[in-house]
């Protein structure tokens, strides 16, 4: 049987799980922002260093080699960063969903219990 006191408890648990999810998501997005800023700084420094190297090169062939090497290194770093950010986003999604999943499991159990009790009462 439904009790209004229980609804207040369920409401409080729902709000708590939502707040926990928001907190987890906020921390995750802070980590992503920090990681992105760090990568941007590294990329900028690498670009400046590459430009300085280009200024000192004397032959066209050396320019081509230097640019090829830089492009390869930059692309590898970019792809590694994308993988790292993808993992961070995946972790945020998993951690944010955990409180809701626990609440859903608890609610499902309560409904099953009430349906069992109602079925037993109807059979009697």
Question: How do the strands and helices of this protein lay out in sequence?
Answer:
Elements: H1 4-56, H2 60-123
Task: Explain what the structure shows.
The structure is a single chain. The chain is mainly α and 124 residues long. It has one domain (4-105). The protein has 2 helices and no strands. It has helices at 4-56, 60-123. The protein starts with a helix and ends with a helix.
Summary keywords:
94% helix, 124 residues
Would you kindly provide a brief summary of this structure?
By secondary structure, this protein is mainly α. Helices cover 94% and strands 0% of the residues.
Number of helices: 2
- Number of spatially distinct domains: 1
Categorize the overall geometry. Answer: rod-shaped
Q: Average pLDDT, to the nearest integer?
A: 86
How many strands?
Answer: 0
Strand residue content: under 5%
The first-to-last residue Cα distance is: 16 Å
Low-confidence stretches: none
Global structural class: mainly alpha
Q: Characterize the biggest β-sheet.
A: none
